[in-house]
Amino acid sequence: MDVSNAVLLELFVRSLSLWWVIIPGMVLGTVVGILPGFSAQNTLIILLPLTLHMDIESGMAFMISLYCTTQLGGGIPAILFNMPGEGGAVATTLDGYPMTKKGQAQQALVLCFSASAFGGLVTTIATMAALPALAQLGLYFRSVEMVVVIVFGLTLIAAIAAQDLLKGIIAGFFGLMIGTIGVDPVFGTPRATFGLLELYDGVPLIPALIGLFAISEAFVMLESETIVRSEDLSKARGARWSDTLEGLWLTGRYWWQTVWTSLIGLIIGILPGAGSTVAAFLAYHYSKLLSKTPELYGTGHPPGVIAPESANNGVTSGTLVPVFALGIPGGTTGAIMTIVLTYHGIVLGPRLFIERPEFVYSVYMQMLVCYIFMALMILPLARYMSRVVWVPTRFLVPLILSLVTIAAFSEREYVFDMGLALGFGVIGYIARKTGYEVTAILIGVLMGPLFEQYFLRALRVGQGDPTILFSSTLGNVLWVMVALALILPWLRSRRRQGVLARTVEAGHE
Amino acid sequence: MSNPDPGPAEPSARTALGADFIIPALAGCLTVYYLASTVDLVWEAKATGIIIGLVLLALCIAHVARLGLAIARGRGSWSTGELFDDNVFNRQRLGLAFMVLLYVVTIYWVGATVGLFFLLIGCMRLLGVTRLRTLLGVALVTAAMVHLALITLLDSKLPRGMILNSISALIGGA
Question: What are the pLDDT digits (tens) for A415-424?
Fold first, then answer.
């Protein structure tokens, strides 16, 4: 996959010309990031009718700019109100909020924005440099390996994201089972369609996505009256320009911290199921571990803001790697982008790097342009965006519910899909309340048809012998990793229980 | 030295595990239905579903056994906890779901835009917004923006309903 410098330059200029979708995406992403409850995923879902209608380049530029900026926006309420706007910003509260309490809110905001922008830039450039190697990686994956990769992805999501491993795996396989609904790919005979013609093409992905995430989240969200306390808003006011400049100076002082913690984010982003929350905590943990002054962490120490913020933006570059290289999304955002790319007829997987390498580079170039714009917007953002007011859930919930119901119509233009989204919403709500990971269900639904395609191909190669699934070295290595992903969390929890029991016992004695 | 056995928990301290059975039950029902509906098909048409279904059934059985054991040992109860409690949030959720369902069912007659207007008013009212001006303002602006963006600009096939069709006919539009 060789792309010349001239082509890269042309892609960069073309990405710059998409400023008219990148800038609105960034503004929207910042606002969405600030408002807890309005996640990047939900907003991408609400705006699906718009992105599906755009040409693929503009649609991707819009989604990417919105997604990347959301990670930045999530840090604002985390720093100002101790209320993370996004999961990835939870770790930012540890030192961001103490900085606000010390009267350094403006410095913390600049640190957050610059770490996000520069961390994102570093990882986007690193990913672009590594793309040829990643493309080669995809070629080693044939049908057998792809079956194991799908199982491995679901297992990782269950192991990392879910609180209970068994529940997580059940959720993943439940999703896979839903994904097998529809006519079979060989003979076209209906399977488990409940007699509904609308399900002959399989379970539509957008209603499943909308229901499992947006509707179920709206049902959960209504339990809180307001999200941010009004008295905390006063802290956002009264910032000075000298504080902003001091924040910039601190960013320069800790530049190396930004670089290496963003690379942690990149690696975590590539792994299915991990995501920005895990990346941010891991980066914070290692930053503290390797620091000469670990005792300052948690008291309003600048590296404690830089580490999680650069890591959660580093995740954004990694998220698209499994989507492009293997056609397998590692999380919800990847799943939404997969749906949009597939809708536009983009065939994901190793062949994408051979047939349309310039497309892959163009997407990363759009990300690069977005981060450059973001770097330019740091000062005005820090100055004014912190004044965004809170929105009560009594307005948020009706808006989310009504807009996503309409968005469910966009893929196939069937009213049936709107009802189906509500059905998935109820399932998603029950799953959330009972601790079954909805991401695993969604990835299962998404991967169901793909799993069937690779599984049948593998069986045909093996003339119906299922042991073909254990015939390749790479596949077997992946099976071992599946086993480790299943066993290690169980062993860890057993050890924790053992330690707990010994502590209780010592207490009794 | 043996591990201290905490014994059965107090009834109030037991974890409500009843709701934990719902997802495995749904998964189990779907699997059984899938297996039953594909009995007569050739192996290629049902192989994937059978493999996934059998693994899923095994996982569900293991989980249900684990839950049953916890209940038998007194650490959990059959209660479904707050999921089906008669509280204000659940009543609101039920109301919201009903209104969305009503919107979907009546969309061909009422239309996407007009229906959205009433849906927003209904949902906001249910969640405690009482000011008429706010209700009408938010609902009107949102419905108008959706109509402008999706129906006028993107030419979506969202049903327009009798009211908008009548207005269009009266003013000579499409």
Answer: 999 999 999 9
Are the beta carbons of A406 and B124 separated by less than 8 Å? no
Segments forming the whole domain that contains residue B20? 11-83
**Which of B97, B104, B127 has its CB closest to that of A415?**
B104
Alpha helices in chain B (DSSP H): 22-37, 43-72, 88-110, 112-126, 132-146, 161-170
Domain identity same for B106 and B154 = yes
B55: chain A residues, CB-CB within 8 Å: 173
Say what the pLDDT of residue A367 is. Answer: 86
B13-23 in b/e form (b: 16+ CB < 10 A) is ebebbbbbbbb
Number of domains in chain B: 2
Instruction: Count CB neighbours of A169 within 10 A.
Output: 28
Query: Each residue of A93-123: pLDDT tens digit?
Result: 888 878 877 777 778 888 888 888 888 888 8
| CA of B129 vs chain A CAs: smallest distance (Å) | 7
As a dihedral over the C-alpha atoms of residue A437, residue A443, residue A444, residue A448, rounded to 10 degrees, the angle is 170
Interface contact B127-A397, CB threshold 8 A: yes
| B31 contacts in chain A (CB < 8 Å) | 177
Q: Calculate how close chain A gets to B160, using CA atoms only, in Å.
A: 12
Q: Are residues B146 and B96 in the same domain?
A: yes
Cβ contacts (< 8 Å) between B150 and chain A: which residues?
49, 406
Which of B83, B102, B134 represents a domain boundary (last residue)? B83
- Residue B103 covered by a domain: yes
User: For A154-211, how does the pLDDT look when each residue is reduced to its tens digit (9 = 90+)?
Assistant: 787 777 666 788 898 999 999 999 999 998 877 888 898 898 999 998 898 888 888 8
* Beta pairing partners, B15: B76
**B23 — contact with chain A (CB < 8 Å)?**
yes
Q: What is the rounded CA–CA span in Å between residue A485 and residue A508?
A: 35
- Band of pLDDT at residue B174, cut at 50, 70 and 90: very low
CB pair distance less than 8 Å for B47 and A456: yes
Please state the separation of Cα A445 from the chain's center in Å: 17
Compute the average pLDDT of residues A378-388: 61
- Interchain pair B48, A180: CB under 8 A: yes
Average pLDDT score, chain A: 80
